[in-house]
Amino acid sequence: MGIETISMSTYYRHVDCYIKPSIILYWENHQKLLFLNLASKELVLAGDGRCDSPGHCAKFGSYTFMEQS
Fold first, then answer.
1. How far is Cα 18 from Cα 25, in angstroms, rounded to an integer?
2. pTM of the prediction?
3. Higher pLDDT, 69 or 42
4. Which of 23, 28, 49, 53 could cross-link to 59 by cystine, CB 3.0-4.6 Å?
5. Structural contact between residues 68 and 44, judged by C-beta atoms closer than 8 angstroms
6. At a CB cut-off of 8 Å and minimum separation 6, what does 63 contact?
7. Are the C-beta atoms of residues 65 and 46 closer than 8 Å to each other?
8. Is the Cβ–Cβ distance between 61 and 50 less than 8 Å?
9. How far, in Å, CA of 41 to CA of 54, rounded?
10. Got the DSSP string for 16-68?
């Protein structure tokens, strides 16, 4: 069809230079706002943990908290 496109290396360079930093900046600002809003409140937390491994014994674990109010 004769349509020109950018190369994969150009695409990933744009992602690394523009898209990822924008997303990270937005998330950090959003997270700061959330922390400021929660700083003066009494928190009600719920949490859950999980262990994961390729075999039978737990090698990796993670625990997640969620504010419930």
1. 11
2. 0.63
3. 42
4. 53
5. yes
6. 47, 48, 49, 50
7. yes
8. yes
9. 41
10. IIIIHHHHHHHHHHHHHHHHHHHHTSPP-EEEEEEEE-SSSS--EEEEEEEE-
Q: What are phi and psi of 65, to 5 degrees?
A: -110, 150
User: If you count them, how many residues does the chain have?
Assistant: 69
Distances (CA, A) of 23 to 5, 41, 67: 24, 28, 23
* Residues 8-45 pLDDT 10s: 999 999 999 999 999 999 999 999 999 999 898 899 99
The answer for residues whose C-beta is within 8 angstroms of residue 53's C-beta and 6 or more apart is 59, 60
Question: What does the pLDDT average to over 43-66?
Answer: 85
Res 54 pLDDT > 80:
no
